[in-house]
Amino acid sequence: MVHRQSGLVAAAARSRRTLLKVAIVGAGGRLGAALLRVYRGKFDVIGFNHAQLDLASDQQVDDKLAPLDFDALINCAAFTNVDLCETERDQAFRVNAEAPRRLAEICSAKRAQLVHISTDYVFDGEKRQPYTEEDAPRPISVYAESKRAGEENVLAVEDRHLVLRVSWVFGPDRASFVDAMIKRARESEHIEAVADKFSAPTYTHDIANAVESLLENRPGGILHFANAGDCSWQQYAQHAIDCCLSSGVPMKAKTVRAMKLSEMKNWVARRPVYSVLSTAKYHALTGRSARSWQDAVAEYVRDFVRL
Q: Exposure of 261 by Cβ count < 10 A (0-12 exposed, 13-18 middle, 19+ buried)?
C-alpha cells in the first residue's frame, strides 16, 4: 500500500512539473481576469494586476518578471482610455509600446513565448470588409498609434512572439459597453446607440479558449480573433436586450434607437467606423471556428445578468 501511494505521489509530482507555466500581466482587467480563472487547474498560472505590476515602471517589470520561470507570458495590460491617450501620449506609448518591447526581451531571454493582446483599432476603418492580418494598419488615434507601435516592437525582438488582435471585448470581470446598455435599459424607457460603427463583440471566455489552443501550437506573428459576424453598437445592444427579455430580466426599454457616430460630441479621439477582423487564419491554424457573437452574448446574459 505504501509503495502504491508513493507511486501515485510521484506521478502527481511529474504531472505538476509538466504543466505549462503561464504568466498573465493585466490579470485584474476584463480579459486578464478571465484568463486567470479559466487557466487555473489547466496550467501552472500566475497573474499580476496593475497594483502588483505597473507596466509604466521598467523597474517593476524587471523585478517581477526577470526572475520568474514561465513558458509563456500573456500581456493583457494596456492604457485603453482612447480619449485620454490623446492628451497623455507619452504615457500611452510607455505602456502600450515600450513596455511590450521589454516583455518580449524578457521572454526571449527565457526562450518563452509572449502573447501580446492588441486591437482592431490599429485599422482606419475605410476598408469596409473584414481586415486580414496582411492588411496594412493605419492608426487614426494616439491609442491606435501606440498599440501599433507595441505590435512592431514585440515582433522586432522576435518574430515567434504572437500579437493577437481582438475586438469589442466583453465579459463578467469588468463592465463594458453591453453592461452599460443593459443597465440603462433597466433604468430608462428610452436608450440609443450608434448605428453606423461596426465590428464584432468578442467574449473573454472565447478568447481564453482561443489563446489556450494557440499556446499549444505556438504560432508567431500577427493573428486575429473575434466572435463570428459583425454588428453595429445599436444591433449589439438590441440583441443583448432581446436576450434579457427572453430570460425574464425586466427591461424598461425594449428598443434601442439609432444614433449617428457624428453625434458623439464628447469624444476626443477618432474611432474606426468599420473594424471587423477576419478569423480565417485562426481557423486555418487551429481547425477551430469562432462561434457567433450573438451566441456569445446570449450565453453571457444567461450566465451573468441577474433578475
A: middle
